Amino acid sequence: MTQDLVLRETTGAVRTITLNRPAALNSFTGAMHEQLLAALDAAAADAAVRAVIVTGAGRGFCAGQDLNDPDMSSPDGGAPDVGAVIERRYVPLALRIRSMPVPVIAAVNGVAAGAGANFALGCDMVVAARSAGFIQAFSKIGLIPDCGGTWLLTRLVGRARALGLAMTGDKLSAEEAQRIGLIWQCVDDAALLDSALALATKLAAMPSKALADTRRALDGAAMLDYAGALALEAGLQRELGRAHDYAEGVAAFLTKRAPIFSDR
């Protein structure tokens, strides 16, 4: 029987996806990648899901790649093709997170190391327990940040801090991660899941398509000049302005009632 390496739970309009290899600090294996991608695809396809939380079982969020997994071995006993693992596993995962039609929140309950850290940082918002930590562990085994880390780190905290975190591989506390803008929020350990659920529930009641397009606009603008960013804004606003949620938001504002958004 296939082991449930990824658990799914739905509360209202919020889907919680839990990495479930607690004895191995939820480190990635090929099998877990497949189940995680399937869970994200299912959430994306379910019109009733309007926000997603990703967290880890046990005392860790995700310790990165499991170096003992068959993915990291070579059929001829030689050096593994790490690039092939990135292309087969981590590129689809990173792109799936960035293309979700609803907001995705990482609830980091413990260590987030290597690809596990960058998987979390690739989510729209990160809420971390006070005891959690973020480690760019790649330099310790002769690699560079992956799972989007080279793109994310500089944009989140600037070149100096990005290089420092990536080169030293030192652990960054959740409190310091919040202070330097790497994550959205640091909360007490006991409040983590409630805080993440409250945030996800708030986002789920908002216009999902507009939130997803906000991600699209901010990410896209990072690769454009000012004029290009203005053009991207205009194009997205044109599309959103013709959608139900804009009409509903304006009508609710004018009649002083709570809006009911449904676009996705």
Defining key terms:
10 strands; 2 domains; 10 helices; four-stranded mixed sheet; about 260 residues; alpha/beta; six-stranded mixed sheet; 2-enoyl-CoA Hydratase, Chain A, domain 1; about 15% strand; single chain
Number of helices: 10
Structural class: alpha/beta
Total beta-strand segments: 10
- Largest sheet: number of strands, sense, barrel closure: 6 strands, mixed
CATH second-level architecture of the largest domain: Alpha-Beta Complex
Please give the order of strands in the largest beta sheet.
Answer: 1-2-3-5-7-10
**Average residue pLDDT:** 96
- Uncertain segments are none
Kindly report the CATH topology of the largest domain. Answer: 2-enoyl-CoA Hydratase, Chain A, domain 1
CATH superfamily of the largest domain: 2-enoyl-CoA Hydratase, Chain A, domain 1
Distance between the termini: 35 Å
Gyration radius, in Å: 19 Å
SSE pattern: EEHEEHEEHEEHHEHEHHHH
Q: How many domains comprise the coordinates? A: 2
Please give the CATH class of the largest domain: Alpha Beta
Bin the helical content: 40-55%
**Percentage of residues in DSSP E strands:** 15-25%
